[in-house]
Design goal:
The chain is an alpha+beta fold. Helices cover 30% and strands 7% of the residues.
Amino acid sequence: MAHLKTINCQAWEYLNKWPKQAWTKAHFSTIPKVDNICNNTCEVFNSRILQYRCKPIITMLEEIRCYIMRTMAARKVKLSGKPGPLCPVQYKRLEKEFHFANQWTPIWCGDNMGLRYEVHMWGNKVEVNLAEWTCTCGVWQLTGMPCRHAIATITHKGGKPEDMCHEWLSIEAYNKTYQHFIEPVQGPQYWAQTLYTHPVPPYKRVQRGRPKKNRRRSVDEDNVTGHKLKRKLAEFTCGRCGQTNHNIRSCKNIGVPVRPKKYVAP
């Protein structure tokens, strides 16, 4: 941060407003085993329930419940026949690290347990501790998956890197996530009848204009119309008079001669 302040003070002031745990991996927590922070899950859920939000409250909740029930049932069957120990997505990530692990050479430091190594590549050195599942780069602790340095060390000892991944990345953990299910609910015609007065919905005053369906955005979010972002055009110059923010068709300086295509301003 001190070096950034000397380069760009405005960038330093902007980043200094936020906690470092929210934007730099060096300060991320190693508990969740995730190396990124995003709200994609919330955005996907909001986009899927958009068609239900305009309905009455009970109908909306019932539609959302059915959507969650269908999603959990589909996810439960998705990886039911896949072999372990890792999920297919985690295997793809592990294969990418395998490609770079061949460039690193592990050297045993001589400890009694034989689990501490110094890994080299073209003058770069990191320490890998197989007993504590740690590496100097911090990727192993942050993601729960062995980094390229750890993979080089594990394969050097004749082990399997997939056996030294965190349990949350396994097929077993995935199946445990979806072992629960949403209980089926009967329709209103099968509900128990009571002697109490049925609740009456409150009076709703119909406001003028089309009802809003988009969610309320926060202050720091850009307003998006429809499903497309606003197009930001670069500043363009008129080919006749040389002024900006209009072209030769809308130019009002009729008496000015047209400049040649390869014109260079003096």
